[in-house]
Prior knowledge:
Oligomer: single chain
Radius of gyration: 17 Å
Number of domains: 2
Amino acid sequence: MSRVLSSVAFQVGVRxxxxxxxxxxxxxxYADQVEDQLLCEFSMYRDVxxxxxVDYLIKNKNFIRxxxxxxxxDKTPEIIAKTVKQHIKVIDMYLKCNYKKYYPKxxxxxxxxxxxxxxxxxxxxxxxxxxYNFLNYQ
Length: 138
């Protein structure tokens, strides 16, 4: 079993960057999961992940795939609330505090090119105290 990030991402069925965004969102220090770096062609490094972390990613691949779909898709506060089964007012208050550019006059205004893309509904719910104990990684 390969432990190189690109191979693991392929095995899980997500982008390499998704694994890094997932770690960032759920308080997993990605750098701590890298056991080694391989020097490849063009002086590029490839991360070799720890065996335990690879097992963790494979075990949680269905959720990580959901995370990826959500993270890279456009969404509104209503979609986020529905996705994580939170009340819209709770999501709205969170977004007003953390994504102020979408609330220039206190009301949600989508950006021209995208609407809350690269924002994870699941990370928002996690930060609001949602139960993600199944993702605990030590």
